Amino acid sequence: MKTLARKKLDDFIVRWIAEDRPYLGICLGFQLLFERSEETPGLRGLSVFKGPVVRFREKDIRKISGQIRIWAGTPRDAFPEKRHWCFKGIGKEDYLYFVHSYFPEPANDENCGHKTNYGREFCSSVLQGNLFASQFHPEKSGRIGLRLLKNIISKVKKGKLNMLVIPAIDLKGGKCVRLKQGVAENETVYSDDPVAMAQKWVSLGAKRLHIVDLDGAFTGNPVNLEHVFNIKKATNAFIQLGGGFRTLSVIESVLAKGIDRIILGTMVYETAGEAEVALEKYPERFMVALDTKDGMVAIKGWKDVAEIPFRKHWV
Q1: pLDDT of residue 260
Q2: Are residues 11 and 136 located together in one domain of the fold?
Q3: Choosing from 20, 94, 170, 215, which is the catalytic residue?
Q4: For strand 95-100 and strand 121-128, is the pairing parallel, antiparallel, or unpaired?
Q5: Would 199 be classed as within a structural domain?
Q6: N or C: which end of the chain has fewer CB within 10 A?
Q7: Is 215 a catalytic residue?
């Protein structure tokens, strides 16, 4: 964990998982997803799942090493609707390789994908969307392990993993609106309660929200931040926010409030030097918007265009 933090990969991994991108964790890559471990007291894990990693207490199983049937306990996989795509072609009599002295205890049992019994029952994998992490080693499990890895690689290659749908909420005057062709005066109001709108999207399964402060885009400084912070507090969803971010000081103040990612547009073209500083300082917390109008890059909420052809930025 110290090495991940030093290389600024801890936040990167958490955000990667939050975006429901493919994640394969093996052994330590499984355990570090939890909050803490008895193996390294005082050191925090990634906290993707709540619960500790603890040592086997039983004297006869202080360490597990060898081939064990993953379904030897009370696996969730006993229920067909719970069967995970990565176990296609792997049966209940197949063995996988374990070597460990510690195991996680998820606070929420639903986070445990499979349980294995070796003198005692323990959680041996977690399954969530495009995330699969296991205590066992597929790379050391012969034909069965190769089958599992093949299932994962095949799904990534074919693009059959879950699609991430990102609802957009445009804010103007504290309301959720849509502008026709980006014209400020040509708006349709869909809700005067941004928090309720965000909660609705999250209740429908949204893991991430794309929010644009239209007033900020037009004026050059965020205007609807109170509503955005309230949305974050009420939903704890991953939020990518754009509109009016033109200075590093404003950006840092908003990131400090817990907003996950900032979308830069005008700043990239008008104060490129300061934008570069921001991107270097917080490399995983930015997106660059490429809006187009009449074939050119549009800026300032579509009011102006930069004298740069949109096609130039397609790479």
Answers
A1: 93
A2: yes
A3: 170
A4: unpaired
A5: yes
A6: C
A7: no
